[in-house]
Amino acid sequence: MRLGKVSLDEMVQGLDSADENWVELLLHPEAESVWAEAVKRRESLNAFSRLAARWPAIVHQYKKLKKYTKKSSNASPISLFSTNFQPFNAALSGTSDEDQAFSIEIIWGEHQIVSLEKNTLIQFNGRRGINVYYSFSDGDGVFRIDESWDFKLEEGAVLLTFFEGEGLSDDLESMLNNAKSVGSVVLLPSK
Q1: Residue-wise pLDDT tens for the chain (191 aa)?
Q2: What pTM was estimated for this model as a whole?
Q3: N or C: which end of the chain has fewer CB within 10 A?
Q4: Cα→Cα distances 21→43, 108, 124, Å
């Protein structure tokens, strides 16, 4: 396929692109997945650009983590979820259950950026050997997996870094060096 990431990115953004690119995409046997990946890639770039423009300190920490990402062969699953579901508010506002539901699986060895549209109490589902290091405009620190994070739009982006391993401390460098698995997610205000 002659269509590369740049051509597909232009198509996703609605920029002028050659008609033959559209024809080639439509004739491709995996057109839907090629297009879905291009849209996902563009959304990721847009989110990173918003993050970089408003919270450069978080981006610096985020980029620093890239060299420390790792995943052990038997890494425990972990996810973030919200219990803010309120059926009466959903019915009155016309919001579907799926739109209110919030759940993200942390992928060990990778970094994710997730946009949130409202204040959300984030809880974690994972085993006890996992610690979370947080960084946001008001500071940084460590908390346990059985605690929660009260995400507030007005406080800005927050970088949550997950560490799996024995004998982890409160020091970020030490945690990065001693962890068996590391993964992170940036919770980014959509506004």
Answers
A1: 477 888 888 889 988 677 888 898 999 999 999 999 999 889 888 888 999 999 998 888 888 887 777 777 777 888 888 876 444 444 444 544 444 567 889 888 888 999 998 898 999 988 777 888 899 988 888 888 888 889 999 999 999 998 887 656 667 778 887 888 888 999 999 87
A2: 0.77
A3: C
A4: 21, 36, 43
